[in-house]
Here is the input.
Amino acid sequence: MILDAVGRHSARVKILGLMILLCLGILVMKLYQLQVGEGQASVERARQQSVRTILLSPARGLVADRWGVPLAELRPSVDIDLYLLEIKSYYRKKYRHLPYIKVQVRRGGVNKAEDEVDIVKVVEDSIAPLRAILGDKLNYDPEALRLHQRIRENVPFQLKSDLSFEELSKIVERNPVVPGVNIAPRPVRRYAYGATGCHLLGYVGKPQEAKLLVREGRKMEVETIGKAGVEFALDDYLQGDPGYRNIEVDSLGSVQRILDQQQPTLGSTVYLTIDLRVQQIVEKAMAGVGRGACVVMDVHNGDILAMVSVPNYDPNTIVTKAGWQDVALNEAKPLMNRALSAYAPGSIFKPIVALAALKYDTVTPSFTTTCYGGMQVGDRYRKCWSFDKGGCGTLSMLGAIRRSCNVYFYTVGIRTGIEKVHDIADRLGLGKKSGLPLRGEDPGTIPSLDWMKRTYPKDRWSNGHMANMAIGQGFVRVSPLQMACVASAIANGGTAYYPRLIAKVMNASGEVVREDPIRVKGQLDMPAEKIEIVRQGMRAVVNEGGGTGSRAAVENYVIAGKTGTAQFPTRIHGRQVKDQRTWFMAFGPYDEPRYAICLMVEEALRGATCAPIVGEIYREIFALESSMQGYQLTYLKPYHGHFEGVQEVTPEQDQNPVPPPE
Amino acid sequence: MKRLTLRQKLENLDWVLLFVVVLCALAGIACIYSATWISERPELRVAYQRQAFWAAIGLVACFIVSLIDYQLFLRWVWIFFGGAIVVLLLVLLVGREVHGAKSWLAIGSLSVQPAEFTKVCFIIFLAWFLTKQGKNVRSLSTFLMSCGVMGVFMILILKQPDLGSAAVFIPIAFAMMFVGGVAKRWLALGGVLGVVGGVLAFFFKLKPYQKARLATFLNPSLDVSGAGYHLNQSKIAIGSGGLSGKGFMEGTQNMLGFLPRDVSFSDFIFSVIGEEFGFIGGVALLLAFAFILFSALRISMRSRDLEGSLVATGVVMLFFAHIFENIGMTIGVTPITGIPLPFISYGGSFVLSCFIAIGLLQSVHIHRRVY
Here is the structure.
């Protein structure tokens, strides 16, 4: 009986064994799924919760002139940096909890209330020992701190930058130990020559939103970005690779050890075509004019040797609140690069009309007209600037350029016609963007019949329009940069080059990573002797009695140039005023031209404003060429410009203006 | 039946089984060390030493129990039964509370968890009771009385409260009744009633934290930082161990405290094993457990009488319930209840009671039928 029972229970034990086997099988299967199937995902999750990446700021590359003299360089700034993750982990250890606040956050276009660590309170509690030393000097924007926590927590927050020597020594003396607070020098942008070339260089600042830099498949947040100029346009080259430090944290967030790290690198150096000495010569020559711009160009390749726009600003201080206000409140618009803005050229457009007439033989060089101070065009009598003097007399092409006679160019312009003038302007690159890597360039306007149809479909192109165009008024708009190209083309026998600002970009190990080639934009395609007539006319402007630009003359060198003036109404401080733009376009030396200059000045003071400045610039450039001595480079303070001499007008006064004397 | 000499008894002992058990205990001590060496609490850092001490005591107890004929325990069944009930009542009256559960009795400087030992007592009692029923074993009254005794133990332990330990009595009782010959219809009925009772208990009896644990078991991503935290971190630890693990004392989940250090050496020791020794290590441990379980089942089948067979069955289910529930909860197969892994998890009372259970098993084996 016992054996019987044992026999029966043996079978039941076997069933039990089967069930056990089944359950163990389930465990093994689940283990397999977890460890072998999804193992890699778990490794990633384990890593995610235990590894924090801290970014190490890269050093920004330099911006140098054509000879390698740095305009934008780096200087050490001793900063107090807050590593927010570390501060929070220490805070939690000490107080057992973190304070939270409700904040309104925009997510997907909807405002939501979310809990966020009250980082300002955490930081204030943590930096109490520092505050005891520095007191009120330790001021920061609490909102900026909150924003920083939200968008780039793993980048240190700069509590205070540029500690003074006294502040630093006070801190070192008391040596307060606050985990997560680091006092260290960091490389920051410094513009060594102040406002020099500020419109070219631009400036740097913190990104508005988190900007990711993808390098070698790794995404990193960028701490400083270029906001304008070359700093903006070539930001990708100038950014160094940020370094990083992977740290291991425990479940409370406290740092255990450094897993691996990579040091940040120095960004590439951008070499401009600018010659810093020429740039400073021009900057200094321009100090004093109301507002204006000047471009110095190498006539043989389009290299921009100097480009100045005043008023200007100091890129070192523009990112500060005071510096920004200074710029924002100035009605002369210091941020605007006037060299790239388009204006009515006035008489400096006349050589272009002359070239068109000569190329297409609408007049011969010996063609003459007689100016009695004005002429009838259509139903209107148009004056020459010499109206009060009884006219310019009988002039050939050369003389007409020299004296800038309006009557001659009314006649020639109407004979030549809009399409031929447009063709020459187009060959010289007018009415088109020059392709510089700078923002805010105005292509300007050169009217054509097509343009007229598109822009003023109800109007017809008339001789009146043509007369206006022939003296650089009416619809014509050009920029100082474009006119420097025109002067270069006239100087070098008819080749217009694309202006070049970036010579090359070289990375930290000396490899050239970008080189901007010299490119031809257009050819005049006309015999040299025809261009020579215009060149001679421009030489006469400066060098012969009765020329309008005689004050641009330089001893021992022959300069050729052309003056221009255009009045324009504008609003300053809310009042309607009459302002005046004066131009001077030049090249020199006449026989072996090297430098083309276009200068534009906005101010209504009487007198030939431009010619003497251009003469002064040439004089100094030639002195630089011939002397062995170095040029004394200086730190330039920003120049604010002025509105002296502008006259308040009532709108009706502005009818049928007499072209001003030139 | 003639009495065996000591020499015969030692020859009859299942040395291979004992060897595997000792191996498991040693592995347990090593894993406890790996789980605690980094802890900032000194009493945790020496946990492995205390475990070694209790394992040694357990081994001695195991030998003593092995050599005594289990029939002697069955004859003294009322001492065990009475002792167990008295001790459980004592715990409720004068027990020490740790982590909200009054599970401990202080004897001098020692703290013991009597519930662990009462599981063994219950096995002895039920083996005696079921055998004593003889042909009556298939009757409803046998089933009801077995369940009643089980209920008494469970209620006393639930009062502490220790849901995990109380629940272990169910598979032990049902397996022993099944092998002992209780009619299948009563067992099935009991199963159905048990599920219904469980559902009712969930709504009326369980504490909020127990409900939360069950809820997270059903949906682990529900609350990753709260009730689901343990399970989530345990799965990350085990999963990140991969095929071959991160190496002894290299488990980052444990070292960095994502696996809470107060349970990583006790209830969640398998998470440490899974992380440090990977799938290979986990399966090796399961194979060792399987070896112990199937050796015990074989002992059950070859026992000289029904009592021995039932005792062995009870011991198998005691181990199996702990193994399945403990490992299962670390990988999300079973809900989280705090019961330890035999021979591996830290716990003096538990390791001692496990060795005593092995002793009982060996006793059944030594005094088996000899053909």
Remarks:
- The mean pLDDT of chain B is 89.
- The longest strand of chain B covers residues 101-107.
